[in-house]
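pinging the channel bc i need a second pair of eyes. not urgent but kinda urgent?? the chain im working w is below, pasted from the shared doc
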Amino acid sequence: MRTWVLGSGSRGNAVLIECADGAHVLVDAGFPPAILERRLQAVGIAPEAIEGVILTHEHADHARGAAAAARRWGWALYATAGTVAQCSNLADADVRTFEPGGTIALGAADVETVRVSHDAAEPVAVIVTVRRTGSRTAVAYDLGGTDHALRRALRDIDVLVLEANHDAGMLRAGPYPPSVQRRIAGRAGHLSNDAAARIARDCAGAGLGELVLAHLSASCNDGRVALGTVADALVPTGYCGRVHVAPQDAVAGPFLGRARRVSHVQLALDL
């Protein structure tokens, strides 16, 4: 299994997962088709190779390009009924709906979904498992916190794409009015660096080899700050993998999920 983040942030999100035998799953399509095509080609993947697209929720930075790309390349789209109802771009698209918490059989993989807390209709986190090898990649962003169901789903993950949206101090000192700050920091908002660090610490078992921090705010976070906060939390766990920051405007990866037997956390600022 190989995973690439094709870009992550408020201007667009998409995560490509290569499962087995050339099968590919895309989690979110928050860029116009031209950008999606260019970034897929940058990693040597033809758009036609995508078997299906799982939409985590309806916000434009996650769903903007889905319908147009599906029409162009014949992609199968999957989303919750709530997401479809709230996303005007999907009104005329052929979307296969699933219940939050349901599992989708897609090619060589099983795609598990978990309801998360965010200001969207039916937002989900996604865990993709290759049946033949058991390799697992999880994508958990746009959420204000975790519950027991999500923490359980994030056990034994090889590659974890995890939101680290804002630094709490930078958010308070940033450009947003208090009402927006409260929304971002609230239970239905976005994960702070500190919250991401706590989740990462809980997930840093023997199998986790690649942790990718995603959806960083351009105005209320800094990649080095996010890396430092999460790395400090991982030190007591003995984590032997790598920690990356996914950029907004470029591809990061591939992430293979193989634990590195080293004496310290390896940091990679992929900006």
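so The longest strand covers residues 2-9. and The two ends are 23 Å apart (CA to CA). — does that match what u expected or am i reading it wrong
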